[in-house]
Amino acid sequence: MTDTTYTAAWVPDDDPARSPDVAAELAALWVQQQAEALHARPVLVTQTKEQWTLGPDAIRRLATASDTVTDRGSRPSGHRRAVLAYLPRYRDTYRAVPYARGGALAVVEYGADPLSGWAMETQAVNLVDGQLTPKTWNPVQQNLLEDIHTYGNNGWTRGPGADHAARLVQELVANGVDSASILGFMVARHHSEEAIERLAAIVKKVV
Predict the structure, then answer these.
(1) How many other C-beta atoms are found inside a 10 Å radius of the C-beta of residue 47?
(2) What pLDDT does residue 3 have?
(3) Each residue's pLDDT tens digit, 8-67
(4) Whole-prediction pTM
(5) In a designed cystine with 111, which of 13, 24, 118, 196 is the match (CB 3.0 to 4.6 A)?
(6) What's 148-167 look like in SS3?
(7) CA-to-CA distance for 70 and 12, rounded, in angstroms?
(8) How confident is the model at residue 167 (pLDDT cuts 50, 70, 90)?
(9) How many angstroms separate the CA atoms of 131 and 147, rounded?
(10) pLDDT above 90 for 191
(11) Residues 149-165: pLDDT tens digits?
(12) Is the Cα torsion angle 170, 174, 177, 178 positive or negative in sign?
């Protein structure tokens, strides 16, 4: 069972014909609506500060009305916020979650760090079609994912945790669960960027 404590939404990076402006507009509108409902200033999380000025119009507008977060930026306080993670790396998604607890988090997916597993596990609304993201794994596969999560309590560092995770990853991949689903699931369970990188290295060995 998921331990998600926020309402989730996303714009997947699944259509080359969808313009960055459209993707950003869908997410920004949803976050603004959530912020109004929460009576809280929204939070914009990006990889770089340049995205506030060089990105799509919707992101530039949101940046002026939001608390903003980057690797090197300031850290706003509080939670129960409406958060937009725009083209986030896994580290950015990890950074966004604490602000969204009790509130809402929307993601415009960054293809290099896919979040389909996150969207499935958090039951994120697909802002393109308005539907909840369905899980593609079955109950047995869900249990395997849960076990990998449990073995990641030390970040999948060397030792029994990493060894058991490698065995379970191999079983999942052999049964058709892709790496994006595995890694995204662990992002939904709020494993750190460093832990996700270690797990990604384990996955790479068996894919």
Answers:
(1) 16
(2) 65
(3) 999 999 999 999 999 999 999 999 999 999 999 999 999 998 998 888 999 999 999 999
(4) 0.92
(5) 13
(6) HHHHHHHCCCCCHHHHHHHH
(7) 21
(8) very high
(9) 28
(10) yes
(11) 999 988 999 888 899 99
(12) positive
In the chain, the amino acid numbered 108 is: V
Examine the pLDDT at 72 and tell me if it is beyond 80: no
Strand order in the sheet with 131-132: 67-69, 43-46, 82-86, 104-108, 7-11, 125-126, 131-132
**Residue whose pair of structure tokens reads 């309402």 in the numeric block:** 7
User: Hey, what are 76's tokens?
Assistant: 């706003």
